[in-house]
Write a structure and sequence with these properties.
- Helix 1 packs across helix 10 and helix 7 crosses helix 8.
- It is built from 11 helices and no strands.
- By secondary structure, it is mainly alpha-helical.
Length: about 280
């Protein structure tokens, strides 16, 4: 287990090295996240206010707005992840990322992205309902389902970006590739996700402490608290950008190794063999 974690850490460092050498890659998950947040605030936000109404029609409108806002946010995140995958592919192949071409590729795949966003949202909704209403068995089943779903769809974004097939075909393709090459790709993704999650939590805790100090009412507390809120937000945003960009690069590198048996970018065959061993 510790050896796998060590290998996962090495994969993470090399993935982040690609992002650091081409900072424009980091802007993509940041842009997608900001636009998704705007969609949530402008569309789903009013819906949250309406669901508390005593009018059935108003509540229905509220739920519709929440669904639309959530879907728009999901679409935007996936759209920019596809751009990231296309640009990361250039970087890993030794070319300077062409963001114009990467964005054009994503635009050409809008129907596929929209379909994948819908499928992803429906699965997330199903798992959330199971978790909330199924008691302890439901929570266990939802956790297992989320783990399996995450594994099966691990390569969907690179498949969408580089093969341009539809969402159902992309899921099948990703699932087939995972079955063919079973290994530590989960560990590599786990390390990336773990670092991002821990850093995000640190940022949230710092920001929450800042809010508490601001609410205390003293002038000194307000100034120091405001500074902590700013620091916490910066840490949380940086963690999200790190996780999104690094995961995108790692996914594309693993996609090439699994489909073509070749290493790209700074990765060696040995690196990626530890991440995707044939069963």
């Amino acid at each position: 287990m510790f050896e796998r974690m060590r290998q996962g850490w090495q994969l993470t460092k090399k993935s982040w090295g690609v992002v650091r050498s081409r900072p424009q890659l980091a802007k993509l998950p940041l842009t997608g996240g900001v636009l998704a947040l705007i969609a949530i605030v402008l569309v789903a936000g009013p819906g949250l206010l309406l669901v508390g109404s005593s009018s059935d029609a108003t509540r229905v409108t509220g739920y519709v707005l929440i669904a639309l806002g959530s879907y728009a946010a999901s679409f935007l995140i996936i759209y920019y992840n596809v751009i990231l995958a296309a640009a990361a592919n250039d970087a890993l192949e030794g070319r300077e990322p062409d963001l114009v071409a990467a964005k054009a590729a994503a635009r050409n795949r809008i129907p596929m992205i929209a379909g994948w966003a819908l499928v992803s949202a429906l699965v997330s909704l199903l798992l959330a309902v199971l978790r909330d209403r199924g008691g302890l068995p439901g929570r266990i089943a939802a956790s297992l389902g989320a783990a399996v779903w995450g594994l099966v769809t691990f390569l969907v974004i690179p498949v969408l970006a580089l093969e341009g097939i539809g969402p159902i075909a992309a899921i099948k393709r990703s699932g087939t590739l995972v079955r063919q090459r079973w290994g530590q790709q989960v560990t590599g993704n786990f390390v990336i996700g773990g670092i991002s999650t821990v850093a995000t939590l640190v940022g949230v805790v710092i920001a929450a402490l800042g809010v508490f100090l601001v609410a205390g009412g003293s002038a000194g507390g307000a100034v120091f608290g405001g500074l902590l809120v700013l620091i916490g937000l910066v840490i949380a945003i940086a963690a999200a950008v790190f996780g999104g960009a690094t995961r995108g690069v790692f996914g594309v590198a693993l996609y090439h190794f699994v489909t073509e048996d070749r290493a790209v970018g700074p990765f060696s065959n040995q690196d990626l063999a530890s991440a995707a061993r044939t069963r």
